[in-house]
User: What shape does this take?
Amino acid sequence: MELIKTLRDRTGAGMVECKKALDESGGDIEKAVEILRKKGIAKAAKRTDRETSEGVVKVAVNDDNTEGYILELDSETDFVARNDKFQSFADEALTLIKANKPASLEELFSLSMADGLGLKESLDTLSGTIGEKLELKRFEIVAGKTVAAYSHMGGRIGVLVVLDTENKKDLAGDIAMQVAAANPRYINPEEVSAEEVEKEKSIYREQLIKEGKPEAMIEKIAEGKINKFYSEICLAKQEYIKDDKRSVENVLAGAKIEKFVRYSL
Assistant: This one.
């Protein structure tokens, strides 16, 4: 344990990596440091405080459009985000998610990549090779009668949409595009908390009082503004991006949106 602690202090690597390196080096600290450096783990660990504000969002669906997958892989710079190795790693990680359906990031990190390393170890190695902090931040799997995926701005935004009706691939794709462009927070007004609605109303009331509106009219006008508020934050009530004369709920024609996931860098 003392050797592991010393190695951790020297490299910043995790306990598991330190133990493996010490086992491999026969307890020789200097050799263990060298092993970790070769793997890129020591360098990657020292970058943990850096900001990862660039990267890519990857999305995919299965063959019959009943399951969707999304992940966000972050880097420090846009230059690295466009790197072929970085993009290939993100693609392989998404394939692993699709094949193994991990329940958590921890489970995903333990899955083996093509290079024979666990995903986390492989990511640390890539970080050492590239010279930037890399972070697989989050992922999600969704399922339903129809699932569509949409990627926007070269992978800066990724969306999954689930409909409750079969064989609606094109419609689901259009709704996913809507989510990417309009960034809704909810599907329907019923999902918005009473507290949030009341907070908005109180702001409107104050504005209307300052504008000198008659007291008898204030509540009615505030209600109208709340409907406008719903049309901005609720997907079903939003103006449809392909036809501004219709709302999203008009376009659905009986189908229902069960879920959407939107990742944005």
